[in-house]
Amino acid sequence: VQLVESGGGLVQPGGSLRLSCAASGFTFSRYAMSWYRQVPGKARELVTLITSTSDRTDYADSVKGRFTISRDNAKNSVYLQMNSVKPEDTAVYFCNARLGGVAYWGQGTQVTVSS
């Protein structure tokens, strides 16, 4: 099982970034997918999730209206479009797959929002 995030980097406040997560080794289309983020010294927090069929998405209040999650089950991938980013969005972003009591994590990708 692998979840490999990509697309992180340095972006200026107000800018945009698109994260990708490529999955392999499990039946991706059956799993709900989420993005979490974590800063040093703080707990990992849920940013957004999407159901297996994309019929529902949820967002943390802090990112509503700015971030968009999407998935492509044909490509075994999930994406996070980040717009109007703020310095407080700086964190390591993790991809998560969950089905019942089974959960998989990626290794994370660093996003730094700074001028």
Blueprint of the fold:
Blueprint (H helix, E strand, L loop, with lengths): L1 E5 L2 E3 L5 E8 L7 E7 L6 E6 L6 E3 L7 E6 L4 E6 L8 E9 L2 E4 L3 E5 L2
Parallel strand pairs: 2-11
Antiparallel strand pairs: 1-3, 3-8, 4-5, 4-9, 5-6, 7-8, 9-10, 9-11
Report on this model:
This protein is mostly beta strands. The chain contains no helices and 11 strands. The strands form 2 sheets. Strands 2, 4, 5, 6, 9, 10 and 11 form a 7-stranded mixed sheet that branches. A 4-stranded antiparallel sheet has the order 1-3-8-7, with no helix packed on it. A hairpin with a 6-residue loop joins strand 5 and strand 6. It is globular. It starts with a strand and ends with a strand. The model has no long low-confidence stretch (mean pLDDT about 100).
Summarize the structure.
This protein is mainly beta and 115 residues long. 0% of the residues lie in helices and 54% in strands.
Q: What portion of residues is helical?
A: under 10%
Strand and helix order: EEEEEEEEEEE
Q: How many DSSP E strands?
A: 11
SS field, number of helical segments: 0
The assigned structural class equals: mainly beta
Biggest sheet details: 7 strands, mixed
Strand content: over 45%
Q: Name the poorly predicted regions.
A: none
* Mean pLDDT over the full residue set: 98
Distance between the termini: 37 Å
Tell me the Rg in angstroms.
Answer: 13 Å
* Gross morphology: globular
Supply database-style keywords.
115 residues, mainly beta, seven-stranded mixed sheet, four-stranded antiparallel sheet, 54% strand, globular
